[in-house]
């Protein structure tokens, strides 16, 4: 099959344009799971020091409470693909919405540290499900020429969720007089921060009832006519709908729903394409990006920044994250996935190296000299910018499109699960590593950013402009 061109429609096609606005609205609704992913992942940033103080725990225990949600994420990511293949993409979204809602309420009203951890695991399962189902669903309903940009909606929603969570945290902190444990609405400010998520969680559930099921899932269960109607909605009448349904059906004919056994190349080893997906996921996390979103307030306070200012810097970092994501959305379908990844890796390695140098000047009492402080602050923002315009977007886009149809859901689940395990490793280790040597910790992240360059050059294939049925 010929690759789908990524150029504007010809004059003949323009008479029957793709209903792009409708597809955009569908992708945006599905990406609400990404918003919750970002919000729930980073809202804990505003509660870290309050949890430490309220429950009187050290860095190691605190890190486990913060990171334990990521175990739930791995579980959700590993199971979401199979759930989506059995009951549909929309039902999977609705289950995630319920889990987000329950987690928000429970996290806001914990009895003790153990049940706060439990509610965070439940929220993590929802995040993991959203991390898989969002990119897969958007890839399956998007016309090939726009799939990269629409797929980047997931990451755009994630970074907006991160930014909104930091803005809400900053606003609530100020409302509580700068005290994370100050009283608001009859409970402590940090509890309100965690409970606010119930609003977007309910909205996500409602939006899931307003969007259509994936045509590929419908074809897989024999609902061809309904799939045909949805394809007409999202790809327009400029295509031969009967031929399009037949094309998808042919690609899926004789295939069983994807299972983990389908991912093996022999023995206990995965197929090479699955390892590439796992590699992308691990490198995305091992550069330390989520330290910026889970611990930034604590990090800046540890080098002498006022708590209110540290919350503000967390918010400005989130704004830079949005800017970088918008840049990626503009260029992901123009220059391709691989070039963006390489540019991002080079930029991240340089920025992380500068942070490592700046933190090496930290004094015994924990403060940075003014010059190094500014270098650290600027380099931290530059690191987030380069990550956002590259790996933050392209990994999710590629995971949604790089696998063959037969194994897509299961392979995406494994890759996303690997991503959450890697995220957990970084999140759980950072407080102890920072106590050991903050500069040395950033040297480690720098090395992984540098190593991601040869990984992309050798193993990652470009997917720009290819239809999902071409992946093999």
Q: What structural keywords apply?
A:
globular; disordered N terminus; mainly alpha; two-stranded antiparallel ribbon; Growth Hormone, Chain: A; two-stranded antiparallel sheet; 4 strands; single chain; about 475 residues; about 75% helix
Describe this structure in words.
This protein has 472 residues and is mainly α. It has a single domain (19-211, 258-470), classed as Growth Hormone, Chain: A. It is 73% helix and 2% strand. It is built from 21 helices and four strands. The strands form two sheets. A two-stranded antiparallel sheet has the order 1-2. The protein has a two-stranded antiparallel ribbon with strand order 3-4. A hairpin with a 2-residue loop joins strand 1 and strand 2. Helix 2 packs across helix 8, helix 3 (32-42) packs antiparallel against helix 7 and helix 6 runs antiparallel to helix 9 (189-195). The model is unreliable at 1-17 (pLDDT under 50).
Topology (SSEs and partners):
Elements: H1 11-14, H2 20-30, H3 32-42, H4 48-55, H5 59-87, H6 89-108, H7 113-141, H8 147-175, E1 183-184, E2 187-188, H9 189-195, H10 198-208, H11 215-220, H12 224-235, H13 241-252, E3 264-266, E4 269-270, H14 272-286, H15 291-294, H16 296-302, H17 307-331, H18 337-359, H19 370-388, H20 391-401, H21 408-459
Antiparallel strand pairs: 1-2, 3-4
Helix pairs in contact: 2-7, 2-8, 3-7, 3-8, 3-10, 5-6, 5-7, 5-21, 6-7, 6-9, 6-10, 7-8, 7-20, 7-21, 8-9, 8-17, 8-20, 12-13, 14-20, 14-21, 16-17, 17-19, 18-19, 18-20, 18-21
């Amino acid at each position: 099959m010929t690759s789908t061109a990524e150029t504007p429609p010809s004059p003949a096609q323009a008479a029957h344009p793709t209903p792009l606005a409708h597809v955009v609205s569908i992708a945006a609704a599905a990406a609400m799971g990404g918003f919750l992913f970002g919000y729930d992942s980073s809202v804990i940033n505003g509660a870290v020091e309050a949890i430490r103080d309220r429950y009187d725990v050290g860095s190691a225990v605190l890190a486990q409470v913060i990171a334990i949600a990521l175990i739930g994420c791995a579980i959700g990511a590993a199971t979401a693909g199979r759930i989506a293949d059995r009951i549909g993409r929309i039902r999977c979204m609705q289950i995630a919405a319920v889990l987000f809602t329950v987690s928000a309420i429970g996290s806001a009203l914990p009895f003790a540290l153990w049940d706060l951890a439990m509610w965070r695991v439940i929220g993590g399962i929802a995040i993991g499900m959203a991390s898989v189902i969002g990119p897969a669903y958007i890839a399956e309903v998007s016309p090939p020429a726009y799939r990269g940009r629409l797929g980047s909606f997931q990451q755009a929603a994630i970074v907006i969720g991160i930014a909104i969570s930091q803005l809400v945290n900053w606003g609530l902190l100020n409302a509580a007089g700068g005290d994370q444990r100050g009283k608001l609405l009859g409970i402590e400010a940090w509890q309100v921060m965690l409970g606010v998520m119930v609003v977007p969680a309910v909205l996500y559930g409602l939006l899931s009832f307003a969007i259509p099921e994936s045509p590929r899932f419908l074809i897989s269960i024999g609902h061809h006519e309904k799939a045909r109607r949805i394809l007409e909605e999202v790809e327009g009448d400029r295509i031969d709908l009967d031929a399009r349904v037949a094309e998808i059906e042919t690609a899926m004919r004789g295939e069983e729903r994807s299972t983990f056994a389908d991912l093996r190349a022999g023995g206990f080893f995965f197929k090479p394409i699955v390892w590439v997906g796992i590699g992308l996921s691990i490198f995305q996390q091992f550069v330390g990006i989520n330290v910026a979103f889970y611990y930034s307030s604590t990090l800046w306070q540890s080098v002498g920044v006022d708590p209110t200012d540290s919350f503000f810097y967390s918010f400005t970092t989130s704004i830079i994250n949005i800017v970088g994501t918008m840049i990626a959305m503009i260029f992901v379908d123009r220059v391709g996935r691989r070039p963006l990844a390489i540019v991002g890796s080079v930029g991240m390695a340089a920025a992380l190296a500068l942070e490592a140098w700046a933190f090496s000047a930290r004094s015994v009492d924990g403060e940075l000299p003014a010059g190094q402080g500014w270098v650290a602050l600027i380099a931290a923002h530059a690191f987030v910018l380069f990550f956002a315009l590259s790996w933050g977007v392209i990994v999710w886009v590629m995971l949604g499109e790089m696998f063959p149809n037969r194994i897509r859901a299961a392979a995406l689940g494994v890759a996303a699960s690997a991503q959450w395990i890697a995220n957990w490793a970084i999140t759980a280790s950072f407080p102890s590593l920072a106590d050991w040597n903050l500069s040395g910790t950033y040297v480690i992240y720098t090395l992984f950013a540098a190593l991601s360059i040869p990984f992309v050059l050798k193993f990652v294939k470009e997917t720009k402009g290819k239809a999902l049925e071409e992946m093999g």
